[in-house]
Amino acid sequence: MNEVVDKALRGMALLSVRNIRHWTDRTFSFRCERPAGFRFRSGEFAMIGLMVEGKPLLRAYSIASPAWDEELEFYSIKVEDGPLTSRLRNLAEGERIVMRPKPVGTLVHDALNPGRRLFLFSTGTGIAPFASVIRDPETYEKFEQVVLTQTCRQVAELDYGRDLVARIAADELLSEMVGDKLTLIATTTREQSPAMGRMTDWIRDGRLATATGAPLNPETDRVMICGSMAMLQEHKAICEELGFIEGSNSAPGQFVIEKAFVD
Length: 263
Ligand code: A2P
Hints:
Elongation Factor Tu (Ef-tu), domain 3; binds adenosine-2'-5'-diphosphate; 25% helix; 9 helices; Rossmann fold; 5-stranded parallel beta sheet
């Protein structure tokens, strides 16, 4: 490796990729090796990417695998002319990505006070951090009921989340940990499906309360939100109208938000 690349890579981990899966024209997931000693909290993100012309081209990606997993998993959108995703989408098994091993983020248990129900609201690839959170034992130790919602334009975009929940149910250890606490509410907005509409509308018109047994309540419920800026702002406004207080790592609260990064 030449000296320039060597310098650019200082502090970075090079990780071999496996299990690449293209879910739709717009989304794919992959797994990669986890560097020895790399610790993170379920729900956090890290900077990952590729070496391009001798320099690391990095973007923030939520780690979709839980903290106990031996591998790392990522779920990504494909942007036609996106500098990183247009290259990442062509990854082949055995090729290597780079990662800056400094995980951060607010979609973590440490940023929430104790509660009875945990709501994880996502749109599109915003489900990625929750793919981690719903496979973490702490989630089920801390909450009696966990509701994951994902809203996408098309039905096929819901496959990653549905497959994930089906794999949890089929896994002996995970299903024992989760029991009957986890519910997935998957909705579409631009293609016909059994459950349609934005989750913001479901909250306002009472469909979410019907589906989960009770309306959102800051006394009993904790909320994590991940999606586009518009989606975050609308969910945040609803939470605040209902009296939820935003939390952070230094001051835990009743709801937390984070942008689904790559776009
Ligand atoms: P819609 O089809 O009604 O715009 P996008 O790909 O634009 O990020 O959208 C992903 C999903 O998020 C779509 O189903 C979209 O619904 C929904 N969405 C977009 N904006 C909001 C919002 N402000 N609140 C809730 N859901 C939203």
